Amino acid sequence: LHLGDVYEIDLEGRDKFIPKLHKAAWQGNLDKVKVHAKKGRVDIPDEYKRTPLHLAAAQGHTNVVWYLLNRKASMYVLDDDGMTPFLKAVECGMKDCIHIFIERGADLDIPDRKGNTSLHISARQGFFNIMSLLLKKGANYDHANDVGEMPLHIAVEQQHKDIVELLLQYGAHVNVVDSYNKTPLMLAAKNGQEAVISLLIEYGAHLDTCDSNGWTAEDYALIGGHSQLAAELKIPTTEIQTEDSIITRDSNNSTSLEAIPEHVSNGSENHTEEVNNEEVKLDSSDLKSPPNVSTVEQN
Fold first, then answer.
1. How many Å apart are CA 200 and CA 156, to the nearest integer?
2. Which Pfam families does its entry note (predicted)?
3. Are 174 and 164 in contact, with CB atoms under 8 Å apart?
């Protein structure tokens, strides 16, 4: 299991003098939590704006989480990273704590300071079961973060095919674009994700969509060094021109890339270089029909 960004707390060093209630919550010592909770507010933050509820949720201490919530601890205090206790539980993969927050009415779509919701975070971490739970409970898969990314963008970028498929099954829009007009297909093409590309195309991904600089999924495949894959993503056009860039194709349908922006090329200087990969075949017979949402197994 890949856990998320658990707080780094050194009780023998820099965090030696954190509040006693915070220490007890971090350690999951419910008896001490009860003792120290009687002395003041249960949701007072430490120097990093973490409340005892943040710490207990990050560690998966369900008994402490229950107690603090029953003592009226706030579910919506933000730590230094703009994370609520609920979002911290999601990031750390603490499913039992997530269940508790949901039962207590937590807002599933509240974002962190970068606009990422619980679905963005679980997509990034690759937590399929948590993603499934959140979707079942009604989390919004169409919420964009501060750079316009939907959870589907994140799942594709992190190469979590099972989560990509789950989001599509629940109705996530396959041709959704971010702030640069990039689609999930473009991200998959750049990373050479053959299986994900097949899945996206099965759900109706458009080959001819251009990003804000005029590049298509085919061009992203070339940028990533996947020339054979690019051949499978070609579109029937001889020239695409935008205000900032031009894509031209010669008689052999080779592509000349001009003015590749930094956020697209990511520093790559070999985007048109031939690679010795086997030819990618996107045969429709190998693709699964989009399953009915009602058949998705909820874990």
1. 10
2. Ank (PF00023), Ank_2 (PF12796), Ank_4 (PF13637)
3. no
Closest CA to 51 of 98, 4, 5, 85: 85
> What are the tens digits of pLDDT across the range 162-219?
999 999 999 999 999 999 999 999 999 999 999 999 999 999 999 999 999 999 999 9
277 contacts: CB under 8 Å, gap ≥ 6: 192, 226, 228, 229
**Strand order across the beta sheet in which 246-249 lies:** 239-241, 246-249, 255-257
Domains of the chain plus CATH, in order, are 1-107 (1.25.40.20), 144-237 (1.25.40.20)
Q: How many whole angstroms separate alpha carbon 281 and alpha carbon 276?
A: 15
Between helix 128-136 and helix 118-125 the angle, nearest 10°, is: 160
Q: What is the pTM of this model?
A: 0.77
> Which tokens hold the place of 162?
């099972």
Place of tokens 């560690």: 59
8 Å CB contact between 98 and 133: yes
Please say whether the beta carbons of 117 and 140 come within 8 A: yes
Terminal alpha carbon distance of the chain: 15
Which residues neighbour 294 within 8 Å (Cβ) at sequence distance 6 or greater? none
